[in-house]
Amino acid sequence: MRAAVLHAPGDVRVEEIAEPAITAPTDAIIRLSAACVCGSDLWPYRGIEPIDAPVPMGHEYVGVVEEVGSEVKNVKPGQFVVGSFATSDGTCEICLSGYPSSCVHRVFQSGTQAERALIANADGTLVPTPGMPDADLIPHLLAASDVLGTGWFGAVAAEAGPGRTVAVVGDGAVGLLAVLAAEQLGAERIIAMSRHASRQKLAREFGATDIVTERGDEGVAKIKELTGGLGAHSVVEAVGTQESMNQAIRSARPGGHVGFVGVNHDVTLSGEELFFSQVHLHGGPAPVRQYLPHLIDLIWRRKISPGRVFDLAVPLDEAAEAYKAMDERRAIKAMLTV
Fold it and tell me: SS3 helix, strand, coil % of the chain, rounded to 5?
């Protein structure tokens, strides 16, 4: 089957690899309908995360179940499903406490930029849609697989809600969908931090009430200015760099909440600054599976349109162009049609 494989920094090739096969009774195999390139895929693409051998790429996916293991009960062949980037059994204490992305049997999904994919822990990972979706719903359902669920967790972790001012650090797909999530959660004011006109426009359409173009200390000062010198009640950090984490913590008021969902790289925090900031920090790999039933329902009833973050769609065979466009910031997020 065809799959996108990263051979070295900047070198993505679509090539023939072996078909997946059921290896455990809890596995499923799905035929991909669509996949996409994630911002986190750009870390190895840029050489920031080293790879030792060619790696099949992708962890966001929707598609049709083709085969299931003997112990799979919740999904069956022929169903259209959405899954998470972290597989989960759905039954362990960690899953039941609301954190399936840290399931004791977790497997981080890979290899979904392909024609077919093996999904471990299928019963606790895959969520069937109410029926076979119309073609125009597929991008929105695909967004739920990661970036919508991650943005949603960022907003929940930041305690976004009625009467609260939410600031979002990062204008990639996750940051933009954190804006959408904050709006859905009833936030009174949503400040999107962005320097890019197209992303600012989408942020506004998703519910942002204010745009801040400044970064770093200047961005923090602008947030303070907009909030009477206090800072935001809720801040979503959706980048994962030292600068973005500092900006997020410093933009929150004492007693405020920071939800950090950007995959962090070499971020260190000052204990003294944390002590005197008096902010709550909550984040990590988003428990997307927890939110999927609700998010699928919103999408199915056409209450939200998160797939609008896909501003480039190309066939799987053109995966290299999808990576290049995102790396060069010519695309917010690229979808691969299979």
Answer: 35, 25, 40
Distance between CA 140 and CA 143 in Å, rounded?
A: 5
The string of DSSP codes covering 91-134 is: -SHHHHTT-GGG-TT-EE----SBSEEEESSHHHH-EE-SSPPP
Reading the block at residue 296, the tokens are: 């699928």
Q: Is 285 helix (H, G, I), strand (E, B) or coil?
A: coil
DSSP 230: S
Phi, psi of 84 (to 5 degrees): -100, 165
Q: What is the pLDDT along the chain (338 residues), one digit of tens a residue?
A: 999 999 999 999 999 999 999 999 999 999 999 999 999 999 999 999 999 999 999 999 999 999 999 999 999 999 999 999 999 999 999 999 999 999 999 999 999 999 999 999 999 999 999 999 999 999 999 999 999 999 999 999 999 999 999 999 999 999 999 999 999 999 999 999 999 999 999 999 999 999 999 999 999 999 999 999 999 999 999 999 999 999 999 999 999 999 999 988 889 999 999 999 999 999 999 999 999 999 999 999 999 999 999 999 999 999 999 999 999 999 999 999 99
Other C-beta atoms lying within 10 Å of the C-beta of residue 159: 18
| Mode of pairing for the β-strands spanning 61-68 and 80-82 | antiparallel
